[in-house]
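F.,

This is the one I mentioned.
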């Protein structure tokens, strides 16, 4: 069984090698056919013409080399370098212009944003002014200036109000200081008044004790004060009567002197008798 399998393997190997040999022989034949074809093509080429062309090309190369050697490349190089430098400057200028344009573009964008923001602020400002228009009129006493002058007007009013407030605050401080001083004085007066009342009470008790020692029926200082007030009223009445009588006497005294001196009536200058003169003088008394 094993020998049979081994034989089969050997047969298979032989067949494979035979196939490979056939393929190799076929490739050799193909290469030989290709070689024959190339030989036919080469035999058809004009080798003499190729040599002539090669010779002509060599002559042309030498001629061009001599022409290149005869040219002044230094001046050309300098010229080209100048052109390159000019081009570099132009490139730099163009780059600068491009950057400037880019910056201007950015500035235009920023300016556009700022403009939009300013418009929003203007709308907001107008809305605020419209909202507080009546208050502004009250502050500016009925006036409503243009928007461009409104800020200056309000600043001036605020400055004047601030000055007025500062003055009032200063006066308020002075008033508070005066009030503090008055409170201190009031406390001092109250203290002195309390001390005075205590002193008066002490003196009153002393006087009452003295009065009681002098008059057992004394009702105290208050009763004496009432008696003193009654006596003062009577004195004032008598003084008033005296003043009236003295005024009448001073009024009619010149008439009496005229009547006694000239024995006539001071009013109508009629002659008095002795009895009439006495009666006239007595009536004035």
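My design for it:
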């Amino acid at each position: 069984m094993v020998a049979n399998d081994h034989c089969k393997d050997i047969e298979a190997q032989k067949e494979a090698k035979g196939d490979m040999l056939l393929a190799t022989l076929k490739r050799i034949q193909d290469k030989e056919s290709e070689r024959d074809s190339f030989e036919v093509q080469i035999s058809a080429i004009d080798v003499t013409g190729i040599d002539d062309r090669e010779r002509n090309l060599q002559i042309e190369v030498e001629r061009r080399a001599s022409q290149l050697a005869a040219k002044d490349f230094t001046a050309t190089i300098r010229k080209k370098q100048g052109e390159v430098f000019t081009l570099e400057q132009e490139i730099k200028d163009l780059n600068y212009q491009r950057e400037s344009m880019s910056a201007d573009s950015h500035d235009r964008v920023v300016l556009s944003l700022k403009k939009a923001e300013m418009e929003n602020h203007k709308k907001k400002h107008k809305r605020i002014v419209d909202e507080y228009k009546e208050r502004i009129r009250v502050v500016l006493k009925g006036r409503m200036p243009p928007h461009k002058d409104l800020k200056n007007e309000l600043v001036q009013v605020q400055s004047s109000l601030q000055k007025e407030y500062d003055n009032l605050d200063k006066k308020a401080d002075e008033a508070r200081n005066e009030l503090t001083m008055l409170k201190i004085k009031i406390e001092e007066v109250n203290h002195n008044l309390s001390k005075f009342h205590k002193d008066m009470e002490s003196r009153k008790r002393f006087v009452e004790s003295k009065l009681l020692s002098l008059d057992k029926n004394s009702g105290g200082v208050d009763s004496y004060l009432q008696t003193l007030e009654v006596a003062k009223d009577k004195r004032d009445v008598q003084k008033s009567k005296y003043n009236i009588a003295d005024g009448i006497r001073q009024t009619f005294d010149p008439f009496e002197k005229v009547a006694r001196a000239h024995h006539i009536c001071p009013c109508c200058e009629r002659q008095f008798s002795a009895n009439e003169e006495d009666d006239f003088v007595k009536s004035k008394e």
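The helical segments are 2-44, 47-70, 73-131, 133-139, 147-214, 221-262, 274-284.

Talk soon.
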